[in-house]
Design brief:
With 130 residues, the chain is of the alpha+beta class. It is built from 4 helices and 4 strands; from the N terminus they run αβαββαβα.
């Protein structure tokens, strides 16, 4: 049982750490139904791991497997579904990306408005090394 739990944790950790993130501005998202449709549209792509829609800010944050897709392909998915979207921030794990890799104010959607990072990624890495 302990091995199964550890394997599940490792898989979840790898999925989150190895995923790239992108944030889109979607100007014509107006209601909860739009948000659900955007989420369903993006999650139809097997590379998409997580989708978070902020109706007030009209933004969509997406965590995805960069080996299976890229931000431009996800943008095309949104525009093909008749959404007016543009890439706001993209994280490819390099300096100056979303901030999660330097522990700075975010952009990937996990750390928005938190200077110094929230510790989310560092904590997961420490737990995985135990």
């Amino acid at each position: 049982m302990k091995k199964i739990v550890m394997m599940m944790f490792a898989a979840l950790f790898a999925m989150n750490v190895l995923a790239d993130n992108v944030k889109f501005k979607v100007t014509n998202i107006r209601c909860q139904n739009c948000a659900k449709r955007v989420e369903k549209t993006l999650k139809a792509n097997e590379a998409v791991k997580e989708v978070s829609v902020d109706l007030q800010a009209k933004t969509v944050s997406v965590s995805y497997d960069a080996e299976k897709a890229n931000a431009e392909a996800l943008l095309k998915t949104l525009t093909d579904a008749k959404y007016q979207a543009e890439i706001l921030k993209q994280c490819d794990g390099k300096k100056g990306g979303c901030g999660k890799h330097e522990g700075k104010e975010g952009g990937c959607g996990k750390h928005e408005g938190k200077q110094g990072g929230c510790g989310h990624h560092a904590q997961k890495e420490a737990e995985a090394q135990k």
